[in-house]
Fold these 2 entries.
Entry 1:
Amino acid sequence: MKKNTTIEELFEKDLEMDKKDDRDGKRCSARAEILPVVSKEDESFLLFESEIPDEMPVLPMSGNVMFPGVVTPIGIHRKSSLQLLKQAERNETRIVVVAMKEDMDEPGFDDLYHIGVIGRVIRVMDIASNANMAIIQATMRCRLEAVTATQPYLRGHAVLLPEEPKIEHPRQFHSRTVAARKHFAEMQHQKNGGQGLSMKELSRALAHIGSDKVLINYLCSHLDIDTKHKQELLVVDEYEERLEMLERVVEQEMEY
């Protein structure tokens, strides 16, 4: 529970900054850089669900994909999504989060990618006039097998998707993950035109994610690639394969 408290404290700080931006007449930013301290021991808490209900609320996401163990702020544009998230926060119920193939107001089962994550709603709030944001922590991957209701919001049946727990070559895996962290920091620094955090500062900040698996998922979730290709990373069952795909994407991005 300690890590969730840390996440909420970070969020409270960012919320105050968003409120100030609103008062100053500036465009509010849904600050996406929520980077909690995570240790290796936190993997079992962050990446595992023992069981889920037979029917769960389903949140369709537009333009992004959530990964296990990663905390993500999302903008809320649909009334049905706002109602879903507020009820989930109030009742402390888990939700299914899946990406939409294309942005639309009323997606159906065939409009959604079926591999998603189980999410815990940390907070829902107003950040400006007619603007809402939610902070969601993803835990385990799941597969949405059916939509069972569409009103007042989507509900569906999902099954948990355990990921391959065994790492065949743990030392090599860790070394490659550290290298991916550094290359990702370099890529982000280049894309930002040298503005903001330096490469070393960003890499050092990412090093606070002490779990290799959560770090890989964090980097995947922050790649500047389209939803379809990001979804391909989520579908992979083995972390070594996901890391290999991540390495290729970062390498390609750094070439441009």
Note: Residues 2-23 form the longest helix (22 residues).
Entry 2:
Amino acid sequence: DEQMDREKSTTDAYKYISSIEYLYPVNLNTYVKNEDGKYIDTNLNDIFTSDYGLDTSEAAGSMGGMSDKFGSMSSMSSGMGGMSLWDQILPGKDGALVSDLVLDQYDLVWGKWPEEATDIVLIVDRHNKISDTAFYALGMIPESDVTEIFKAGMSGDELAITTDAVTSGGYTYRPIGTGSKWEYIVFVEGEDKVAEKSSGVLSVTLANIEHLYDEKYDKSSFIKNIILDNILPSDIYVKSKELHFNSEEVRVVFLIKFHSRSDVLPFDMVQNIFPDKNREYVISVSEQDIVLVKEVRQGADVKEIEKIAKNIADTLNSEFFAKVSIGIGTSVDNIKDLARSYKEAQVALEVGKVFDTEKNIVSYEDLGIGRLIYQLPTTLCEMFLQEVFKNGSLDSLDRETLMTIQCFFENNLNVSETSRKLFVHRNTLVYRLEKIRKLTGLDLREFDHAITFKVALMVKRYLVAKPVKF
């Protein structure tokens, strides 16, 4: 708490942390009655410690890509980690039980959001199906099934069989799919052991073929090729039809630049916040730069989109202690325009580094004159400065004078308001403005002169910063 105090802090932590949340790793002892009428402990720690000698954090790291099987708290979670079936939902600000980020990212399928701290939320996948661990927690599948899933995950195997084979009418049936969703059913003639093993081999083989097909027609790869201009415009619509991709949904490109390194990859951090791969596409364009292509509602304004970006930055900071900057492109309703929105997000970050150094969220639509200056050749900018400030008059202005000018602009050229903000007498400010006029030939109390001076200052900052051109 002391490091959050501006006066007492020795680390400047208060500049980067918006809030502190205290988490208590309490293991809830929950018991349910299973199908056999026996009471079972739903704590997954017992399975790992007894069968594998691992704690839940080690197990979670070993499970790799088994999230479809086990589900995930994702951005709902408050970051406790491990394989707990019970977790605290990410709270909001000012005592709100649920964070705005959770409300934005999850659809309420049935019931209502928590109104009391004791309320429980059950998370379903994108197909509105319940994960196997949730079924286990509810006592609807035996521990042996969960153990088999864990064994496959620990060994890195792809588990495609969700239940045992079923025999009926002289045939053996086995479903193919992940989680509790059956996508296909394979059947083999016969009800003996040979038929059971054959159906198992076929189901795994077909599941792997399906996995390869999904990789070939992966939507995220398709989006990445679009924003990086690696696909011809004429091929975009053809490919979108192959993928059954809704090309006319309103989307926005967020470019998230990570300024700190962590044990968790930036891609995994963002993917954890946006697990729905059918509506949000998380793409890694470099080690520290992550692109998020997100659907937004029709008619969403800049403030609403910036609020989404702020929630992302706050969550990354509070959950992973990651400091980020986010550039926002304009919203587009045509898939081929995503490349333009991505370039705008890049420009927003570069221009923001020059003209809005204190902001970590910059929208392309808010760049104003900075966007225009960014497009100008440096030779033209240098000529402009030479014409406005003859004999190097700009360099002759000291720090105090430049701060006075900045405050004068921020208060809309109002002498009385500016003097009050600077804690100086009105006559003192008038004297400083007169001094500036003699040095530069520009009277900042006149609107046209003020505009010229303001643009010239921005051009000077632009030339010093030398931002990357896109």
Note: Strands lie at 31-33, 39-41, 166-168, 171-178, 181-189, 251-258, 280-284, 289-295, 324-328, 361-363.
